[in-house]
Every structure is written in C-alpha cells, then in structure tokens.
Amino acid sequence: MSEATSLTVGTATAKPGAVARGVIPVTTMPGGGDLGVPVIVINGTKAGPCVWVDGAIHGDEPEGPLTCYLLAQEVDPARLSGTLVLVPIMNVGAYEAAQRGNPFDTFSYDMNRIYPGRAGGYLTERVAHAHSEWMVKVADYELSIHSGGNHSYLSETIFATEDAASQELARAMGPGWKLALRAISPKGNPMGVMVDAGRAGITVELGGRSATSPRAFNWVGRTLADAVLNVLRHYKMLPGRARYEKVRYTGVQHALLAPVSGTFVAQAGLEFQEPLKQGDKLATIYGVYGDPLAELRAPVDGMVFGLRALPNVVTGDWCCFYAEVQGTLPE
Ligand SMILES: [Zn+2]
C-alpha cells in the first residue's frame, strides 16, 4: 500500500497521523461574519480510502452533528488507514435557525433538493457547491445523516442506489440496519452526486423530534457512530472485524400525507419495521371536538419506518414513512 499523504479540505490540512479542523469557506454575511462549513479531517498513519460523513443538510436534524462529534472523539488517527472527513453541519444557516432550510434563503430553501448547487447561485446553492467540490475531490464513500427533524421520528433506514458500491456501503452499516430502500435516480442530494461521479454514497435516517430526550438522543448518536465505525472496519480502515445484519429488506418508500388537519395519534402498539398488511390501521386524525376525521392505513403490505412525532397536523403534512417491502438483500 502506498504511503499516507496530507489531505486538505477547505482550510483544514491534516498530515498523516493528525487531525485538522477548519472550514470550507463560502462567503461573508451582512454583519461581517464569515459563512463557512465546519470540517474535521482525521488522517490516518497509513494510506487507505476516504470516508466522508455529513450532517445537518437539514438544519432541524442534530443527529448528524452528534454522530460527527462522537467519531471525532473516538477515531484515533494513529490506528486509522485512510481518512475520515467529518462535516457536522452542512447547512449552517438552517442549523442556526433550527429549521429544515436557511430562512435567509427562500429561493433554494431545501439543500437536499438543490445539491450540488451552483457557484454563482442563491446562498444555499453556493454552500452546497462549496461542499460538493471538496467532497467529490477527496471522498470515496459518503454518508449523509438525516432524521425526522422537527416533525417526525425515523427508525434505522438507508436509501441507496442499485450500484454495487453503494449497496456494499449500505451493508457495511452493520447490525440493526435491516432496511435499505431504493433511491431511484437520486437527484439534488450528495448521494446522487457521488454516484454520478462513480463513487458510493448513501442517505442514512435515524432519530428526530421524539428522540431528543437525554437517553434517546444519546442512543441515536451512539447507534449512528457505531454504524460508521463498522463501515470503517468493513473497508479495513480500522482494526477489528465488521459485523453485518443477517436479514435485510429492500423496497420503496410511500409518503403518507395528512388527508385532513387535526391532531395526529398513531395506533397504540404500532412498532417500527414490523410486518404489516395492506389496510392495517396506522393512525387517526381527530378534529377539534374529538371526532375521528380520518384514519391512515397501510397502502400495501410492508412496514412503517417513520412516523409523525408532532401531533398538530395540517392537511398535506407528512404523517407516515411507509416501506413497501419488495425483497431481501444478500447477507
Ligand atoms: Zn433530512
């Protein structure tokens, strides 16, 4: 194997065996502050691939930042082969506002729909472009961490394209990650850019509004960080054996939206990623006087992998993340 070399991302340059912090510079804000995307580069003592982890492309999803902070504490460059790049907060303006998108940019609000952006575009497009340029330059494998954000909770779920490299990355997430849904021609997100560049990229979901209590949020961060550590072992970047989920499912997502406004109450006893039959009751939406106005039911055989966690619901709001299971994946 060739010798390790220095790796630069933005203003951060890490020599072999070192960790560097910096930013991917974007622009200056009206108050004079610099807008840059924080980055941590952990460069191993031996050569190897580059795994790139990014969080908070949606600003109401703090699970990615927590995962990156745990990995920054735990991954020792002296034991690492290759490089781990951590981008805890991609969408800085959205994160500061704790909103999905940056409220300063109403033209390209959702960064996960306009990626890789444009160098001369709207503000969020410029942030996306700056991130994308560096990611494509150095990364072999990319994981974009998401959650249910301000309105929902999502259980351990992966979106991946059909290509062998991305499927291998999904499998490398290890125990507990048994649902890898099809991302059919993903456009507008980092995964799509990585796949177009001939690399591997996946979108990973875990956590959200109902899982920010001390115990739950720490568990979510631990679970995500353990999965990334498993990925590093899978690619022989860290010593030790990677572990794998025995039975994994694939399929497609159905987004179940609220047919009426009201108060959303999930069916008591409903469990994530347990088999359901078409027509099984998932939730009831109650009107202001307590009348059940609508029921949500399983559209096909499959499983629920995410649910609304903010009971106040407006017609058209996201209510249920439903997986139509279409088969199993190789162990
Ligand atoms: Zn998200």
TrEMBL record:
Instruction: Decide whether keyword Flavoprotein is in the record.
Output: no
Q: Which co-factors does it depend on?
A: Zn(2+)
Recorded GO MF terms: hydrolase activity, acting on carbon-nitrogen (but not peptide) bonds, in linear amides; hydrolase activity, acting on ester bonds; metal ion binding
Write out the entry's keywords from A to Z: Hydrolase, Metal-binding, Zinc
Cross-referenced Pfam families = AstE_AspA_cat
Cytoplasm found in the keyword field: no
Source species, domain of life: Bacteria
Q: Which residues form a coiled coil?
A: none
Q: Which residues form the Succinylglutamate desuccinylase/Aspartoacylase catalytic domain?
A: 48-219
Q: Which PANTHER family match?
A: BLL3975 PROTEIN
- What is the name of the protein in this document? Succinylglutamate desuccinylase/Aspartoacylase catalytic domain-containing protein
Q: Which species is this record about?
A: uncultured Truepera sp
